[in-house]
Every structure is written in structure tokens, then in C-alpha cells.
TrEMBL record:
Organism (species): Candidatus Phytoplasma pyri
Protein name from the UniProt record: Immunodominant membrane protein
Organism superkingdom: Bacteria
């Protein structure tokens, strides 16, 4: 799955903020979680989550926020697309915050592994699904 800001109904001048480095691409939530849990220590899993998901999403959200304030379309046909993109961005940010918390607590401890995997899948899936909007 790959998502670019190109579906956002912005003028070409505003789209210059976007570049290929900001494209988010994931396989699916199962593959991402499997890759994270392939690491054996809590610290390595936290780093893998940071590198695999959090950093990619962070860069994208920053660029999207640069575009958002000045680009609300006047045309009715573009407002629907804009509002869908805005809602998707809010959902991505919400799940991004949840993922960030996992790098600072005992989320990846052995005792919590079963519930942590399920939670991580849900949060990554929410980002993947909203990137598909």
C-alpha cells in the first residue's frame, strides 16, 4: 500500500511541499507487527517500531500540516475529498500518538506480549486504513 498527498485537492503550488520521500508504504499490519516482534529485546522492538512506522508517519504528518491551513477548497466537489483527507489525517495522528507511547513504557514486555501484539495490529491497521482514504 502506498499513499501520497496527490489525492488531496490542492493546487500545484501547495503540492511542492510533498516529495517522494514522504510517501508512506506498508505491507499490512500483520507484516509490520511480525517485523517488530522479530526483534528479541524490548529496546530493539521499540527502535523497530520507531524506524518502521513512527518516523515515516511523523514526516508525512508534518508535511500534511504545512499544506492544510491554506488549502481548503472553495469548490463543492473538492470539499468532500478535502474533508475526507482531513479526517484521515486526524485518525492517523491519533494512532501515531498511541504508537509513540509504546516506545516509552513497558508495552513490549514479555508479560504483555499477547495483548501488545493485538493492540499494535489495531493501531497500525488504523494508520494503514486511513492512508487508503
Amino acid at each position: 500500500m502506498a499513499w501520497s498527498m496527490s489525492f488531496w485537492p490542492f493546487g500545484i503550488d501547495e503540492q511542492k511541499v510533498y516529495n517522494e520521500d514522504l510517501k508512506i508504504s506498508f505491507t499490512d499490519e500483520n507484516s509490520e507487527v511480525t517485523g517488530i516482534y522479530a526483534k528479541t529485546t524490548e529496546e530493539d522492538r521499540k527502535k523497530e517500531l520507531q524506524d518502521r512506522v513512527i518516523n515515516k508517519v511523523e514526516d508525512f504528518v508534518k508535511a500534511a500540516k504545512k499544506l492544510k491551513p491554506n488549502t481548503e477548497p472553495k469548490e463543492e466537489d473538492k470539499k468532500t475529498s478535502f474533508n475526507a483527507a482531513k479526517t484521515a489525517l486526524e485518525n492517523i495522528e491519533e494512532n501515531q500518538k498511541l504508537l509513540k507511547k509504546h516506545t516509552t513504557d513497558d508495552f513490549f514486555s514479555v508479560a504483555k506480549e499477547t495483548t501488545s501484539k493485538a493492540t499494535l495490529k489495531t493501531e497500525i491497521k488504523a494508520i494503514v486504513d486511513n492512508c487508503d482514504t
